[in-house]
Amino acid sequence: MRSTWTRGWPALLAALMLASGCDAASQTSAPPSAASSTTATTVGSPSGGLTSTPAAGSKTTGGIARSVPVRLQIPDIGVDTPVMSLGLAADGTVEVPPIKSDSPAGWYRGSPTPGQTGPSVILGHVTVGQYGDGVFRQLAQLHPGARVLVRLEDGASANFVVDSVRTVAKDQFPTEEVYGNVDRPELRLITCGGPKTGDGYRDNVLVFASLSGTAG
After folding, report:
1. What is the CATH number of domain 15-45+68-215?
2. Mean pLDDT over each residue of the chain, to the nearest integer
């Protein structure tokens, strides 16, 4: 059964600007709006409403009970981080984790929860201004076959295996591939990457993973 989490969206999803703070040495608090940020990262962000997100406790075909992610573990690159919930900012851009020491990864709550049918999206910083390395500093070093574990609020866990790792120019972000419908539970991990340009980075690093098992 094909996922319906983006039902009602335009066929081509609009690309918005995500204020990422991926380097941003000058940023010491929450990122500025994308319109004024020189460190903004282009990522595909859905246009339209988010009304198809299932209610808490519901189930989707091919997945597990809806439960928000609370922890992300990627053994191959030493990631073991809490996961916060992210929505949309007032200007329509996707929120990001704060620019602070030990900033966690963030799940975009407009996407399915991990383990549900569809692409669940988790964002993380590669660097966090004056605080140094971000939680996804080594994301580009992942390889196909690597394990990704997402622990959920209800005590269950969703286990994923990496299918591919891509570095893409921000102005060529594959919005439909990241946010578009898929017929199985998948995971997207997103951060900045590539060479630095001014205060930011030229590219995005994208990890595509698929569900390999569940527990709990």
Report:
1. 2.40.260.10
2. 77
